[in-house]
Amino acid sequence: MTRRVCIIGHPVAHSRSPMLHGHWLKTYGIEGEYGREDVAPEDFPDFLRDLEANGYVGANVTVPHKESALATVDVADATARAVGAVNTVWIDGGKLHGSNTDVHGFMANLDANAPGWDNTRDKAVILGAGGASRAAAYGLAQRGFGSIVLVNRTLDRAEKLVADLGGHPLQAAAWSDLDDHLKEAGLLVNATSLGMAGKAGLAVDLDALPQTCVVTDLVYVPLETSLLAEARARGNRVVDGLGMLLHQAVPGFEIWFGRRPEVTGDLRNLIVADL
Ligand code: ATR
């Protein structure tokens, strides 16, 4: 029987997940399907609870349903609970299970594209305090970083995120203190929406940044943001955000279709051509 999976969002037409999973299904000759479901927020909990009756063995969940998915699944793993959002759902023993694979995507992207990036694990600086920042902060804390500083325009929001994730090694900081933190950073992450095509650019002075600092941007349209271009020009290692999208899809595919897929150059090129 064909195993069917979908991405549920609202809107969902822009999602690249069908292309990504479709590529793996074809590459590995797996009899499966990966489609889209545009579901309005008021209909989402029922749709998810009836996932099997709707013909699916699992699903990805995207904006605006990730928090609602956490509240709806029967079993959420520790990562989903910590991040406060579910993006991957499967059915096991008649129960709906949920996880958040953005954390894996963020970490695996760095592991794959900047080997040794976490050798010292001293200090990471994250710009932003939304959902993307939360996944990155949790991943870095789990990896054992000694200090993770969240810098956000709205300081309250960073403070709340730090408190939610249990405080130390996380701390919130104001933009005015950014330089002091940058000068000790081993990793700089842009988890704001600044730099995205059509939005304002991210204006950060990188002068204080050590040469050894790895810089990553969760924005991937454009692929090379001005932050990454500037960091690259200074000689810092840079990792773009597209890899996070590719790597976050790996655990879901493995759970639904029983094969751990590879993030290859071919897959990347396929998605790049569609950006
Ligand atoms: P996501 O879930 O993708 O992380 P989000 O929750 O909308 O998205 O968060 C967007 C992040 O970009 C926030 O940290 C936001 O800062 P505020 O919390 O102060 O809103 C940041 N951001 C968006 N536009 C910004 C701007 N013009 N200047 C500075 N920060 C900005």
TrEMBL record:
<feature type="binding site">
    <location>
        <position position="248"/>
    </location>
    <ligand>
        <name>shikimate</name>
    </ligand>
</feature>
<comment type="subunit">
    <text>Homodimer.</text>
</comment>
<comment type="pathway">
    <text>Metabolic intermediate biosynthesis; chorismate biosynthesis; chorismate from D-erythrose 4-phosphate and phosphoenolpyruvate: step 4/7.</text>
</comment>
<keyword id="KW-0560">Oxidoreductase</keyword>
<dbReference type="InterPro" id="IPR006151">
    <property type="entry name" value="Shikm_DH/Glu-tRNA_Rdtase"/>
</dbReference>
<feature type="binding site">
    <location>
        <position position="87"/>
    </location>
    <ligand>
        <name>shikimate</name>
    </ligand>
</feature>
<feature type="domain" description="SDH C-terminal">
    <location>
        <begin position="241"/>
        <end position="263"/>
    </location>
</feature>
<dbReference type="GO" id="GO:0004764">
    <property type="term" value="F:shikimate 3-dehydrogenase (NADP+) activity"/>
</dbReference>
<dbReference type="InterPro" id="IPR046346">
    <property type="entry name" value="Aminoacid_DH-like_N_sf"/>
</dbReference>
<dbReference type="GO" id="GO:0009423">
    <property type="term" value="P:chorismate biosynthetic process"/>
</dbReference>
<dbReference type="GO" id="GO:0009073">
    <property type="term" value="P:aromatic amino acid family biosynthetic process"/>
</dbReference>
<dbReference type="Pfam" id="PF01488">
    <property type="entry name" value="Shikimate_DH"/>
</dbReference>
<feature type="domain" description="Shikimate dehydrogenase substrate binding N-terminal">
    <location>
        <begin position="7"/>
        <end position="89"/>
    </location>
</feature>
<keyword id="KW-0521">NADP</keyword>
<comment type="function">
    <text>Involved in the biosynthesis of the chorismate, which leads to the biosynthesis of aromatic amino acids. Catalyzes the reversible NADPH linked reduction of 3-dehydroshikimate (DHSA) to yield shikimate (SA).</text>
</comment>
<dbReference type="GO" id="GO:0019632">
    <property type="term" value="P:shikimate metabolic process"/>
</dbReference>
<dbReference type="Pfam" id="PF08501">
    <property type="entry name" value="Shikimate_dh_N"/>
</dbReference>
<dbReference type="InterPro" id="IPR036291">
    <property type="entry name" value="NAD(P)-bd_dom_sf"/>
</dbReference>
<feature type="binding site">
    <location>
        <begin position="128"/>
        <end position="132"/>
    </location>
    <ligand>
        <name>NADP(+)</name>
    </ligand>
</feature>
<dbReference type="Pfam" id="PF18317">
    <property type="entry name" value="SDH_C"/>
</dbReference>
<feature type="binding site">
    <location>
        <position position="62"/>
    </location>
    <ligand>
        <name>shikimate</name>
    </ligand>
</feature>
<dbReference type="InterPro" id="IPR022893">
    <property type="entry name" value="Shikimate_DH_fam"/>
</dbReference>
<dbReference type="InterPro" id="IPR041121">
    <property type="entry name" value="SDH_C"/>
</dbReference>
<protein>
    <recommendedName>
        <fullName>Shikimate dehydrogenase (NADP(+))</fullName>
        <ecNumber>1.1.1.25</ecNumber>
    </recommendedName>
</protein>
<dbReference type="GO" id="GO:0005829">
    <property type="term" value="C:cytosol"/>
</dbReference>
<keyword id="KW-0028">Amino-acid biosynthesis</keyword>
<feature type="binding site">
    <location>
        <position position="220"/>
    </location>
    <ligand>
        <name>shikimate</name>
    </ligand>
</feature>
<feature type="binding site">
    <location>
        <position position="102"/>
    </location>
    <ligand>
        <name>shikimate</name>
    </ligand>
</feature>
<feature type="binding site">
    <location>
        <position position="218"/>
    </location>
    <ligand>
        <name>NADP(+)</name>
    </ligand>
</feature>
<dbReference type="GO" id="GO:0008652">
    <property type="term" value="P:amino acid biosynthetic process"/>
</dbReference>
<feature type="binding site">
    <location>
        <begin position="152"/>
        <end position="157"/>
    </location>
    <ligand>
        <name>NADP(+)</name>
    </ligand>
</feature>
<dbReference type="GO" id="GO:0050661">
    <property type="term" value="F:NADP binding"/>
</dbReference>
<comment type="similarity">
    <text>Belongs to the shikimate dehydrogenase family.</text>
</comment>
<feature type="binding site">
    <location>
        <position position="241"/>
    </location>
    <ligand>
        <name>NADP(+)</name>
    </ligand>
</feature>
<feature type="domain" description="Quinate/shikimate 5-dehydrogenase/glutamyl-tRNA reductase">
    <location>
        <begin position="121"/>
        <end position="193"/>
    </location>
</feature>
<dbReference type="InterPro" id="IPR011342">
    <property type="entry name" value="Shikimate_DH"/>
</dbReference>
<feature type="active site" description="Proton acceptor">
    <location>
        <position position="66"/>
    </location>
</feature>
<keyword id="KW-0057">Aromatic amino acid biosynthesis</keyword>
<feature type="binding site">
    <location>
        <begin position="15"/>
        <end position="17"/>
    </location>
    <ligand>
        <name>shikimate</name>
    </ligand>
</feature>
<dbReference type="InterPro" id="IPR013708">
    <property type="entry name" value="Shikimate_DH-bd_N"/>
</dbReference>
